[in-house]
# Entry
Amino acid sequence: MTRVARADEVIELIDIIRRSFTDVSIDKAIEDSFGNIIGKAWHERKAADIKRDCTLNPEGIFVKVIDGKIAGFITTFLDKDSSTGRIPHLAVSPEYQGKGVGKELLNHTLKYIKQSGMKLMRIEVLSHNKAALAMYTKAGFKKMSKQLHLAMLSDKYKG
# Structure
């Protein structure tokens, strides 16, 4: 069953993202390169993102429940000014990956965005996340460009 997430489930969503994004998080890659530079681990920073998503559009946070357990979730943001529905996060617990959970969440969310009157749907994915990239292109998303993520410690700036 796919349904709207409840506010009391945020901790579960954060745990799912911590367990499922270790290889596909830019925040984790930055931490691996520079270390823990602000006293918060990558997954703590990602937790703040999830909490923000849940506050901005609580009716657009969906969970897939299997046998009473949240198997995955997806977050949305509806930008009415640009008529764009954005999907900031889609995460599936490792034990449910490869079983259609992400696809079901994505399809549910795309219907929600369309029914909300948005004209454009957007999602971002790291290029090495091949499974997600394949799922998104199969759903109809087109590659628009490649974006590089660059990072530098501020004390390295010579200006």
Remarks:
- The chain has one domain: 2-156.
- The longest helix spans residues 42-56.
- The longest strand covers residues 69-79.
